[in-house]
Design a protein that fits this description.
single chain; alpha+beta; Alpha-Beta Plaits; four-stranded antiparallel sheet; two-stranded antiparallel sheet; 8 helices; mRNA binding
């Protein structure tokens, strides 16, 4: 083995009890009773990772928090993990009889982005004077997972006799001896990833959410339709493509004809509404104008009649006044002649 790969590591993407008990992932026999018990549970299918009724929430938004202080409460953990995102739910695992903390918990965030932020930044942080470890929810996201109580799990202490490898805290080391590929294939153990080793300082990414079949079919369908159109325009002579193109052209023509008919109807309706509105507006305006003209004409007539009456009255008064003044002058002159 080359010296550049001496410190290289790799991580397990699926769980196998014998491989998890091996430091380099190449063992073919169980080396302790716990591994043997986990192998029996795995081969017999006795463990259901989705059978726990206490496990709720979205696994892609949930992180596993381990190495907690046994005095840490839910409030303290919630406050510490809220620094990395909005905590949706939190479950601190406690003993079923005593109610004491078991030292690990599951924290669910609102979004997957917040979960990944906590996965990267909260690892090896301090809560109540204890350095915690953070990992993704392997119970529901790692194929073939066997928990610690059945001899499986990842990590552990050397004194307990259940030291497991392949996880984020203790990855597999690169093999120092030839890999028994035939034995691994016979037992169903995935071989080490040749050429894809990582450094211990690199962060292994958690699994991403798989897209549904509808999401996969839509891009492929769009791509196939685009390819068919390109082939048709380039001069391809495939009957299925021509038929599909003819059908699509007919559909487009029918769709355009429907749109044109709808546009024509809408334009006709708009013209009718416009003519009706314009005619009604003209009638209202003509009625207003006629009423205003009548009022103005009546006002003018009354003013003219008033002026005529005033002039006639003034002329009559002037004639009467002049006649009276002439009579008075005659009388005055006649009196003066009498005096003389």
């Amino acid at each position: 083995m080359s010296g550049s790969r001496a410190n290289a590591v790799f991580y397990a993407e699926s769980y196998h009890p014998i491989q998890a008990g091996s430091i380099d992932g190449t063992d073919t026999l169980p080396h302790d009773n716990a591994v043997y018990r986990a192998l029996l549970c795995s081969s017999a299918g006795l463990y259901d990772p989705f059978g726990d009724p206490k496990v709720i929430g979205d696994p892609y938004c949930t992180v596993f928090v381990g190495h907690l202080n046994h005095l840490t409460t839910e409030d303290t953990l919630h406050k510490a993990m809220s620094k990395f995102g909005r905590v949706k739910s939190l479950r601190l695992v406690r003993h079923i009889v005593t109610g004491a903390s078991q030292g690990y918990a599951f924290v669910e965030y609102e979004t997957e982005r917040e979960m990944r932020r906590a996965y990267e930044d909260a690892h090896h942080s301090m809560i109540d004077d204890c350095e915690i470890i953070v990992d993704y929810n392997r119970q529901q996201l790692m194929p073939g997972w066997i928990p610690r109580r059945l001899g499986g799990g990842i990590g552990g202490k050397k004194e307990s006799g259940q030291l497991r490898f392949g996880g984020r805290e203790r990855p597999f080391r690169a093999p120092l001896r030839p890999i028994p590929l035939d034995d691994l294939k016979r037992l169903g153990i995935p071989p080490p990833p040749e050429g894809r080793y990582m450094s211990r300082f690199q962060v292994p990414p958690p699994p991403r959410r798989k897209r549904s079949n509808m999401d996969r079919e839509e891009p492929s369908h769009r791509g196939s339709s685009i390819d068919r159109e390109d082939r048709y325009h380039k001069g391809g002579s495939i009957e299925g493509e021509e038929h599909s193109h003819e059908g699509s052209s007919v559909d487009r023509e029918e769709h355009s004809h429907r749109r044109s008919s709808i546009d024509k109807r809408s334009s006709i309706d708009r013209e009718e509404r416009f003519h009706k509105r314009s005619s009604s507006d003209r009638e209202v305006r003509s009625h207003k104008r006629s009423s205003t003209d009548l009022v103005e004409r009546s006002d003018k007539r009354s003013f003219i009649h008033g002026e005529e009456r005033f002039h006639s009255r003034s002329s009559m008064d002037w004639e009467e006044h002049s006649h009276k003044s002439s009579m008075d002058r005659e009388r005055h002159s006649h009196k003066r002649h009498r005096q003389y």
